[in-house]
Design brief:
This protein is an alpha/beta fold. It has 2 domains: 151 residues, Rossmann fold (3-Layer(aba) Sandwich); 362 residues, 3-Layer(aba) Sandwich (L-fucose Isomerase, Chain A, domain 2), CATH 3.40.275. Helix content is 34%, strand content 20%. The chain contains 15 helices and 18 strands. The strands form 4 sheets. Strands 11-12-16-15-14-17 form a 6-stranded antiparallel barrel, surrounded by 4 helices. The protein has a 5-stranded parallel β-sheet with strand order 2-1-3-4-5. Strands 8-7-10 form a 3-stranded parallel β-sheet. Strand 11 and strand 12 form a beta hairpin. The N and C termini lie far apart (70 Å).
């Protein structure tokens, strides 16, 4: 009988009583981790102090790296190695003060048996809320139990009561009385009939989602398996960002210049300079115009009903950022792109829904929105936004909690005060985008919107839906909020209907939410019903939030 050298597997030692281990998932980009580390360090100190006041010790499960000058888990492999040394029953805190790549820690969290607490700082400058919501959505999709909490200074009663509950019971329960499951029988008859007809059209005629490289920035929750998509009549065309770059090289200068001129004629402002390392240059804009044409051509070539560009990894090392491109695609009024063989305008009079960061939950949502709003005769321009942050505000006819919804440039110009004339393009931060590229920046106009999110839970597709009003704040307040977040990006000031800050955070299963305008409050209610009916008829489980 042959004897083999078997691997020696030893389980890590259990932690001491009243001890929790802390991990921090970070970015994949060294520059981002280094810049953001001080904010993470400050947050961890406050969280540790809060637990200490409750008689608990918080220990980091991985050390600060003096060579890299940060203490984040910065790769999937590192995450696996860190979790090898964490006892699977240990109370575990995942602390996030910044944007993070969830897949760095998902392997360890998937097999962890002990109570898991995700924690974020309530900050616009440091997007820990965005990172934590993405992690929460990913854990929800995996079916891993977790609790979640957030705070400005980690000394308020909401936070302290939350961690006390977690210490005592291993979980935190957030009230969800603002949520009710859809009762189809209570939908207006016309909207219910429309939803059934649109769902049947999808299933019979089918539609293609063009995916330029799946899985952006570790967003596991943004990947929807074919087995869930295909029964609805939705299929993926798996495209490569290298093909996008290759097609850009075939676009002649005169065609790209025509796109820039079209935007100039409509009053869009480009904030340019001469140093490509730190400023937006005309050459970068020209490349973005080439990308726009290439994206439209590829969407046409493959018959895509919507497309999504990953843009963060890989593409950022080959071309300027795709944000300006994405915003143009999402608008009905946009620079024309003509077929070189026939001379025919491609997708004339139509938006080409773009799902930012290849978020496939947003893809399903944007496509359904496009069909419903077009049928109703409303502007179908839609975008996702990050749920970035928010604060109470009183003044200018507003007395409520006002969210800052922000995305890197994919918002369509028809969402902005002044349209293209009210829009500008500013360089993406060099920390993230070495090759530059501008955004499509503007202030979202006041009006009525429907918000929603499609996500995976329990192996099935779900959609949370609600209503909100976009408010106009004084310019100085808008500027203050921009400077506390990302001033290059488009901003939306939103007041959710009958959903508090903490209800939203405790329930939401993604860093993104989808928004779309309606002409009036009554129209928004009607469109909400039609969209809910369509989702339901497609097999998506609908939950109304606050409505």
């Amino acid at each position: 009988m042959t004897a083999y050298a078997l691997p020696k597997l030893t389980e890590p030692a259990p932690v001491s009583a009243k001890t929790a281990l802390l991990v921090a998932s970070g970015d994949l980009r060294l520059s981002a981790n280094q810049v953001c580390w001080p904010a993470q360090q400050e947050m961890e100190q406050k969280v540790t102090a809060a637990f200490a006041r409750e008689g608990w010790t918080v220990k980091r499960a991985h050390e600060y790296n003096p060579k890299l000058q940060h203490g984040f888990i910065d790769s999937q492999r590192m995450g696996m190695d860190v979790f090898k040394n964490i006892h699977p029953d240990a109370p575990l805190i995942v602390a996030e003060a910044v944007w993070q790549y969830s897949h760095h820690v998902l392997a360890g969290l998937r097999s962890h048996r002990g109570p898991i607490l995700t924690v974020a700082n309530w900050s616009g400058q440091w997007p820990g809320l965005v990172g934590m919501l993405n992690l929460n959505g990913s854990l929800t999709k995996m079916g891993v139990n977790y609790s979640t909490i957030w705070s400005v200074n980690f000394d308020d009663e909401f936070f302290l009561n939350g961690i006390r509950e977690w210490i005592q019971t291993g979980k935190i329960t957030h009230p969800a009385n603002h949520v009710r499951d859809l009762d189809v029988s209570k939908l207006p008859a016309a909207e219910a009939e429309l939803g059934q007809a649109l769902a049947a059209q999808f299933k019979r005629e089918k539609a293609i989602l063009g995916v330029f490289d799946e899985g952006c920035m570790g967003m596991y929750n943004a990947i929807i398996d074919d087995e869930l998509l295909n029964p609805m009549g939705l299929y993926k065309e798996r495209l490569s960002q290298s093909s996008l770059v290759a097609r850009m090289r075939t676009v002649t200068d005169d065609r790209a210049i025509a796109v820039r001129q079209w935007l100039d004629e409509r009053g869009m402002k480009f904030v340019t300079g001469s140093d490509p390392a730190t400023e937006l240059t005309d050459d970068q804009i020209l490349e973005q115009c080439e990308m726009y044409i290439a994206a439209v051509e590829i969407a046409h070539e493959f018959g895509c009903a919507a497309i999504g560009i990953q843009y963060q990894q890989g593409l950022k090392d080959m071309a300027p950022a795709s944000d300006l491109v994405e915003g143009l695609l999402n608008n009905v009024e946009r620079p024309p792109v003509f077929d070189l063989s026939t001379g025919q305008e491609l997708f004339a009079g139509q938006a080409i829904p773009h799902f930012n960061e290849v978020d496939e939950g947003a893809a399903v949502d944007a496509l359904v929105t496009n069909r419903v709003w077009t049928t109703l005769g409303f502007d179908p321009a839609t975008t996702l936004h990050d749920i970035r942050w928010g604060e109470d505000y009183t003044g200018n006819g507003v007395d409520d909690f006002v969210w800052v919804f922000l995305i890197s440039g994919a918002a369509p110009a028809s969402h902005f005060i002044g349209g293209y004339a009210g829009a500008s393009s500013e360089r993406q931060p060099p920390m993230y985008f070495r090759l530059g590229g501008g955004t499509l920046k503007g202030i979202s106009k006041p009006g009525e919107i429907v918000w929603s999110r499609v996500y995976v839970m329990g192996g099935a597709l779900h959609a949370d839906m609600g209503r909100a009003t976009v408010v106009e704040l004084p310019r100085e307040e808008t500027e203050r909020r921009w400077q506390l977040s990302s001033p290059q990006w488009p901003i939306m000031h939103a007041v959710l209907h009958n959903v508090t800050r903490d209800q939203m955070m405790g329930r939401h299963k993604a860093n993104h939410l989808q928004v779309v305008y309606a002409p009036s409050a009554a129209d928004a209610d009607r469109a909400l019903a039609a969209k809910a009916a369509t989702f339901n008829a497609m097999g998506i489980k609908v939950h109304f939030c606050g409505v």
